[in-house]
Amino acid sequence: MIEINHLTKKFDQFAAVDDLSFNVAEGEVLGFLGPNGAGKSTTMKVITGFLSPSSGSVTVDGNDITKSPIEAKTLIGYLPEGAPSYGDMTTLEFLNFIAEIRGFRGDEISSRVQHVIKEVELESVVQQTIETLSKGFKRRVGLAQAIMHDPKVLILDEPTDGLDPNQKNHVRELIKNLAKDKIVIISTHILEEVSAVCTRAIIIDEGKIVADGTPAELEAKSKYHQAVSVRLNQDYDLSSDLSGIAGIGNVVKEEEENSFTILASSSDSIFAKVSEIAQSKQWPVAEFHVNRGQLEDVFRSVTIHSQGGE
Amino acid sequence: MQNLGIIFRRELFGYFATPLAYIFIVIFLITNGIFTFDIGGFYLRGQADLLPFFSFHPWLYLFMVPAIAMTLWADERKTGTIELLLTLPIKLSEAVLGKFLAAWALTGIALALTFPIWITVNYLGDPDNGVIVAAYIGSWFMAGGFLAIGSCMSACTKNSVIAFILTVSICFTFVIMGSPILLNAFPGWIPQFVVDAFAALGFLTHFDSISKGVLDIRDFLYFAVFIATWLFASAIVIEIRKAN
User: Fold this and answer.
1) Are the CB atoms for A141 and A122 separated by under 8 Å?
2) Of B87, B99, B236, which to mutate for an interface test with A (greatest number of A Cβ within 10 Å)?
């Protein structure tokens, strides 16, 4: 259990993290979202004990990160932003160093190192110096280092940044497999990733939480939640058929030709109503489906003020 | 303490994983040779001691040691590995000391590899080997003093060139503090104890007496305290500036 209590981190007068409070329990995979500069990385740096909080506290399984840092850090595996590692070492040397400093001794070192090498598929590059590796491999070395001691808490700052789609998928599978009985916090810009791996998402902006819930709950906040998308074979005026019907909001014409999105005015399903009308009025339907709601839309609506008119 | 050893080994290994350690050692040995034989007049003096060898060390260290020290923390900050290192379950003091000791060991290795000159002087004459051993240890302690300054300066910046220049400047100040040129420049009305106190802070005062075979524990203590102070300062600077 990670408890974050009224955490504030100021740089000079600027509050990068502003009175943040939340708990994360075992088994949760928390997606940490927010625009650039929202305070995601700073929060992670405080949780991992790299930066000390200006006020408030962080406890990991009851260990306060400022009062008993060694105990707390022992429980945490951390992949910092950009996956830094010692470039002049080979993958194997670097992982041996991490294993040693994580307290493994003797034969344990090589068995543990072999285990993580297998887990993140680094077999082909064990003898290469890290600075010669591709971005994807460097990221995986960073991940290997973070999971070395099978930590109870895994904190990953943009773990899939710069990876190709296959590698992204692989890392997500890895995170899902690791997540059992653990606490995982990942920060990301990629919203589909949240739906794919997270059991909970927190959106922060200007150091404050602006949304917190399961990905499904957040999607429900979207104006596209329960909306029905329709693509027609030919031009047809839908809005006159739909006007005045309870529960149905605006009809939005999409960029694609003859495509419309029928928004719901409440969170109730409008699918049945719309499909009934479509049949009775004999719409020339080519495609017809319900939207789950778009996380991206929620993200934009809760963080829009800081985007500076973009 | 185990962590200290692990960090020490990683750092020392790091020096030898790149050409840095080899280049440092080779240039250190060549420069030492030039200073001792050409400029120092080792043969012309006709004396069986290593005074010309050791008396150039402060000036040699002035440029060589900051070159090792400059990357100590600046590179960690630049590549972001400082975030990795300081979120491992280790104490900051272990990281500071481990890195310092690795760099100090490298200067120790370079210094030890000058042993042929010690053999030479023993072959040519009958030197006081006790004095030579003391001077070697004194020289190594002085290198530690330079390194400790470098550790602190390296912690101040991400840019290792700036760290180098800062380190050279501060080391230069501490070298000339004890030099006769500076001490003679004090006007006569300044009380002698002020001049003495000033000189006592300089490297040369302590190193000269050690290299002449005057074994005073206070000279070694001076370097030990000096190193400890600058390493403590390094830790404070890292703590304050790691976020930048």
Assistant:
1) yes
2) B87
User: DSSP labels for B170-219?
Assistant: HHHHHHHHT-HHHHHTS-TTS-HHHHHHHHHHSHHHHHHHHHTT---HHH
Helix (H) or strand (E) holding A31, with range, is strand A29-33
A111 to each of A91, A177, B223, how far by Cα in Å?
15, 20, 44
Query: Which residues between 16 and 35 in chain B have a beta carbon less than 8 angstroms from any beta carbon of chain A?
Result: 17-18
Confidence of residue B56 (pLDDT cuts 50, 70, 90): confident
Task: Point out which residues pair with A23 in neighbouring strands.
Answer: A3
Cβ within 8 Å of residue B206, ≥6 positions away: B138, B142, B178, B219, B222, B223
Helix/strand/coil percent split, chain B, to 5: 80, 0, 20
Q: Which of B84, B89, B91 sits opposite A80 (nearest CB)?
A: B84
Using CA atoms, how far apart are residues A60 and A111, in angstroms rounded to an integer?
28
Residues 6+ away with beta carbon under 8 Å from A15: A8, A9, A54, A207
A189's tokens: 């810009």
Torsion over CA: A59, A61, A67, A68 (sign): negative
A48–B79 C-beta distance less than 8 A = no
Closest alpha carbon within chain A to B78: A84
Query: What tens digit of pLDDT does each residue of B134-177 get?
Result: 889 999 999 999 999 999 999 999 899 999 999 999 999 888 88
d(CA A270, CA A68): 54
Could you report the per-residue pLDDT of A12-42, keeping only the tens digit for each?
888 889 999 999 998 899 999 888 888 889 9
Domains recognised in chain A with CATH numbers: 2-220 (3.40.50.300), 228-291 (3.30.70)
Among candidates B233, B240, B231, B232, which has minimal Cα distance to A52? B240
Any CB–CB contact under 8 A between A102 and chain B? yes
d(CA A133, CA A131): 6
- Per-position DSSP letters for B13-34, written without gaps between them: HHHHHSTHHHHHHHHHHHHHHI
Distance CA B85, CA A255 (A): 50
Edge-to-edge strand order for the sheet containing A183-187?
Answer: A76-79, A153-157, A183-187, A29-33, A200-205, A208-213
Task: Indicate the helix (H) or strand (E) that contains B75.
Answer: helix B71-79
Residue A310 has pLDDT above 60, yes or no: no
Which of A17, A65, A95, A97 has the most B C-beta neighbours within 10 Å, making it the best mutation to test the interface with B?
Answer: A97
Q: Which two tokens stand for residue A205?
A: 């902006």
Across the interface, which of B7, B10, B89 has its CB nearest the CB of A70? B89
Q: Which residues contact B163 (CB under 8 A, 6 or more apart)?
A: B66, B69, B70, B71, B73, B74, B150, B153, B154, B156, B157
Distance from CA of A252 to the nearest CA of B (A): 47
CB-based contact B32:B119 (threshold 8 Å): no
